[in-house]
Amino acid sequence: MKNCEYQQIDPRALATPTPTPPPHVGQEKREEPRRGPRRKWEVFPGKNRFYCGGRIIVARQSGVLPLTLGLILVTSGLFFIFDCPFLVKHLTGCIPVIGGALFVFVVITLLQTSFSDPGILPRATPDEAADIEKQIDSTGSTSYRPPPRTKEVVINQQVVKLKYCFTCKMFRPPRTSHCSLCDNCVERFDHHCPWVGNCVGKRNYRFFYTFIVSLSFLTAFIFGCVTTHLALRAQGGKGLVFALQESPGSAVELVICFFSVWSILGLSGFHTYLVASNLTTNEDIKGSWSGKSGEDVTNPYSHKNIFINCCTMLCGPMPPSLIDRRGFLPEDQSVQTATTGIEVPGAAAAAAAATKSEMNVICSGPKVALGQMQV
Q: What pTM does this model have?
């Protein structure tokens, strides 16, 4: 071993370090990395937006929900301003009461449909997905092969095929479908409605049905009241032009209601048929139980009774939300989401990158394990 020569340094020759002032209280709090477990809605894999701490869930593509709400508000507002005073004076005071009750019911059911969980199923964890693939691959082959697309189960003596979802890594339960717009598997999926800006499924179908039915009543009620209002003003030889000049807002209501009442009534009638048959829009369009494919099939979910089908679809107990969006992530999953760079503060991201670099330098084993965690 070679001898090393050391030279003593005078401590007084060293520059005295300048003491750094303590950071400002607000700045320290701003730069401090986030601590504690994260909530599940913050790292939700689907294409959804969350508000009020995860209490409200909406689709990322809101569709024409603002237009729907705007048409309802504008039409009802014009009705209460231009038509109700005249009708109360010449007919009865119950008209604004009935119109107000229908309006409130329509808005409440619309917001419930748009801001509630339609029945999203949580995606399989990596361990669950690996277990499913092991059960599928019964040959014991170590080479990778994609799992089969379908799996058959028997429901009420009727064979039902379950499809494998490559996004959620699981076999979809009966009547479940994956929505491409929201990127979620929705239980008892009916359809994705752009007018409400959300999927319609097991947990919000009753709200959607009551919304379109109550909207049908509100539209027909306003249309009838506006027609009566203009007819009364046109009496005495004054004519329709004079009536529209006296109440210009009624003309706007008349046009909106005339072009919308027919489609809304038709939609309400179609979904009434679906409720009575215990069908979904997705099943009716595909002809799953209509025998269009030439097979002798029947709807295994129908109770063969209209009253029981309606009670099952609309009056059953509300199933709980399965995604637990306000729940806390386990500590290991919180660290995992931090390393993947999902909405991590700057200090936490730097610490995660440093930890990952150290693990890569030590040996290859932790590096492989970390890669498996990030899948």
A: 0.74
